Amino acid sequence: MADGGDALRSLLRAANTLLRQRRYHAALAVLKGFRNGAVYGAKVRAPHALVMTFLFKSGSLREKLQSIAQATYTHSRNLAYFVFTYKGLMALQSRLQGKKIPFHSFFAACIGGWLVFGDNNPINSQIIMYLLSRILFGLSRLAVEKGYIPQPKQDPFPLVAALIWGTVLWLFEYHRQTLQPSLQSSMTYLYDDSNVWHDVSDFLIYNKRTDSK
């Protein structure tokens, strides 16, 4: 029993020594990036899938749990693959050119995005839309910082909020099919289902009656 413990301690010491070697840092960073991508993807998707599935999806408990597990696995796997690809290509480009330049990041991410997130499925679609909203804000701020557009005299956020809500509700009311399915489900719950009730039970307690009255 003691021999087993000694072997394990020796293995851990060897692993720690390896991890501290600077010459392996780039390769090890790629592996840790894969690990972090998998963990972060699971942390982000699991609670979101849990809430959305039990709020809006029908089916048995088993089917709902399978749906949550599948969504979590897909998000976790894709993010892990992307981080692995991105960091690997970044390390390769830096090694080939002897230094890191801004184009490396763009090129590596483009390749990773094409390979990992190029499949048009619900999980990838949600991730891409999430990123799109962030980069639009980021590019707008960058354009102001670089002087390409003048600094607004007033905070433009209220106008942006008004235009976004006006547009999305117009699309929901008149061109619903253009919106992403989970957004349609959320808006149906908020704006359509709130128009229908029969008594106190489905006015205050439940969204919809489950009996045959």
Automatic annotation (TrEMBL):
One of its GO terms (cellular component) is peroxisomal membrane. Signal peptide: none annotated. This is PXMP4 protein. The gene is Pxmp4. PANTHER family: PEROXISOMAL MEMBRANE PROTEIN 4. It comes from the Eukaryota. Transmembrane segments: none annotated. The lineage of its organism: Eukaryota, Metazoa, Chordata, Craniata, Vertebrata. It holds the Pfam family Tim17.
